[in-house]
Design brief:
By secondary structure, the chain is of the alpha/beta class. The protein has 11 helices and 17 strands. The strands form 4 sheets. Strands 3, 4, 5, 8, 9, 16 and 17 form a 7-stranded mixed sheet that branches. Bound molecules: NADP nicotinamide-adenine-dinucleotide phosphate and zinc ion (2 copies).
């Protein structure tokens, strides 16, 4: 089936309207009419080939929500009309140890929602800036939020799970003091989720203008990280730091804020490396530097259900598909509170 999408033909070209094809649903497939798709900073990194290996045409988008329009003969878990989501993963090997533990995100054969290998045309996966997608049932999530919250639930499929997974893995909860660095799409979800898990949350931002807003998101304290005095006041005070910053920066400034045995997990994936940290900052207090990538399918469902139960969604600004290039420029300037979400109905407006 031919559908409308938005994507780029080259790293230095703006995104534009494209026609793409989707396969007919197979026995285990779910066909979804996409209602909304969130705009992740990874979309920008990928479409501009800031990470190696972008294939063109590139249609980004891995924060997908919509309604089921057809299911294959062997899809017991979803039916036509259901509200569903698709995140960053559309396939994996399904039999390795990682897949067996529901950590498909760490499978060596994980297929990303865009730029991954597929037999479908054009030979690589095309993402959610489009009208429709066909996905194997294993990678389709149930959305239990009420329909009016559907657009704001979309960013949970990446920003939500990418912050949920490390917060859960490092057992963040009551009694923990948690830092969240960078208040963008991921960071604002990190604040909301760490707060809901019962931790004391300290938000770190480079933007003075986000100080009050961060409190409204659930931060108990807010630090403007450019201010050395404010940073020093939090020395050796945190058990865990979730660092979501999309650009290279001085990690040592944040190690100094960890208690003995504290961990900083990086989820931000800048195009160029951070300056090398001073190992003495790790050695002297037995601190750890870690990383985390999105999350597995079962924990994504767990996160979505937790968020539906607790009324948690992203703070969003809805845009039309033809506003995506402007949205990227605003994202680079930190001018988004806190996630753009494309209204995919706008794709139909093109003649
Ligand atoms: P975003 O909305 O653009 O937010 C990033 C935030 O980082 C900005 O709002 C800003 O916060 C801060 N920041 C940006 N440039 C900075 C700089 N030069 N110095 C200091 N702080 C800066 O991006 P996002 O969608 O949340 O994604 C964040 C990063 O995570 C990206 O690199 C993305 O590719 C990556 N990511 C990783 C995974 C994973 O699985 N690990 C999943 C999704 C995304 P303040 O204004 O508050 O300082
Ligand atoms: Zn993402
Ligand atoms: Zn696997």
């Amino acid at each position: 089936m031919t559908i409308k999408a938005y994507g780029a033909h080259a790293a230095d070209k703006p995104l534009e309207s494209l026609d793409i094809t989707r396969r007919a649903p197979g026995a285990h497939d779910v066909q979804i009419a996409i209602a909304y798709c969130g705009v992740c900073h990874s979309d920008l990194h990928q479409v501009r080939s800031e990470w190696a290996g972008t294939l063109y045409p590139c249609v980004p988008g891995h924060e997908i929500v919509g309604r089921v329009t057809a299911v294959g003969a062997h899809v017991p878990g979803h039916k036509v009309g259901d509200l569903v989501g698709v995140g960053c993963i559309v396939d994996s090997c399904r039999h390795c140890a990682d897949c067996g533990e529901g950590l498909e995100n760490y499978c060596d054969h994980m297929v990303g929602t865009y730029n991954g290998p597929t037999q479908d045309a054009p030979g690589h996966t095309l993402g959610g800036y489009s009208q429709q997608i066909v996905v194997h049932e294993r990678y389709v999530l149930r959305i239990r939020h009420p329909e009016p919250q559907l657009a704001a639930a979309a960013p949970l499929l990446c920003a939500g799970i990418t912050t949920w997974s490390p917060l859960r893995h490092w057992k963040v909860g009551p009694g923990h003091r948690v830092g969240v660095v960078g208040i963008g799409g991921l960071g604002h979800m990190g604040i909301k989720l760490a707060h809901a898990m019962g931790a004391h949350v300290v938000a770190f931002t480079t933007s003075e203008s986000k100080r009050e807003a961060a409190r409204a998101l659930g931060a108990h304290e807010v630090v403007v990280s450019r201010n050395a005095g404010e940073m020093k006041a939090h020395a050796r005070s945190l058990d865990f730091i979730l660092n979501t910053v999309a650009a290279p920066h001085d990690l040592d400034a944040f190690f100094a804020l960890l208690k003995r045995d504290g961990t900083m997990a990086l989820v931000g994936a800048p195009a160029t490396p951070h300056p090398s940290p001073n190992v003495f900052n790790l050695i002297m207090k037995r601190r750890s530097l870690a990383g985390s990538m999105i999350g597995g399918i079962p924990e994504t469902q767990e996160m979505l259900d937790f968020c539906a139960e607790h009324g948690i969604v992203a703070d969003i600004e809805t845009i039309r598909a033809d506003q995506i290039n402007t949205a990227y420029e605003r994202m680079l300037k930190g001018d988004v509170k806190y996630r753009f979400v494309i209204d995919c109905a706008s794709l139909a407006d093109r003649p």
